[in-house]
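hiii, so i know i said id send this last week but things got crazy w the move. better late than never?? heres the sequnce for the chain we talked about at the cafe, plus the structure i predicted for it. fair warning i was half asleep when i ran it
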Amino acid sequence: MRVRTAFGWHPPGVTEPTHSGEAHGGALGQRLNWLRAAVLGANDGIVSTAGLVVGVAGATDSRSALLTAGLAGLLAGSMSMAAGEYVSVSTQRDSEVAALALEKRELREQPEAELEELTQLLQERGLSHDVAREAAEQLTERDALRAHARVELGIDPDELTNPWHAAWASFLAFTVGALLPLLAIVLPPAGWRLWITVVSVLAALVLTGWSSARLGAAEPGRAVLRNAVGGALAMGITYAAGALLGAVGV
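okay and structure toks below
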């Protein structure tokens, strides 16, 4: 009797390890990684745009100048994030494709060596040699490339990283984050703009710091403090620079 697992049909007792409280399967882990990346992208949008518009607010109270600066920062930042993520993920995907092609060639040219390699990898996961050999043979018979991709390379051949998905996700996350300080600085009356922006940005940074910590299973206190202090420093420094430039008429 054999047991169906994520790696194929295994003998009884040869199953993919799971632990209570942990994500089951790669799909949930991938979704959490995407969600964490979205939170961090929004955080970048909040901090960079807040620093920009607060700096401009230190030099002028012109609504049109604030709107122009905020929109320019939003578009430049979101496009930069999207382009950077596209390049980064494209490089990762190219590496995955190359690794799969190499593994496919090795399986074709050296099947016995690859079978022995898979056996050793399964032994390193705690299986005895006999059980590991039997599992390796069954996995190879079912789908050798998938078995080596997942066990040896940690790659799912059916779910390679998509650079376009990553680029759009980064673009949208940054844009959503950047909209908060932009709207906070241009919508209220002139006398309230700065304080409303500072308070709303700090509140948003507390939320993103807490969310990123929880998604990473970390203690949220330090993450929230780092996020809020970093954002406050960014706004304080850029406001001081803007006020100085405005005072000297630059």
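btw Residues 1-25 have pLDDT under 50 and may be disordered. thought thatd interest u
miss u guys!!
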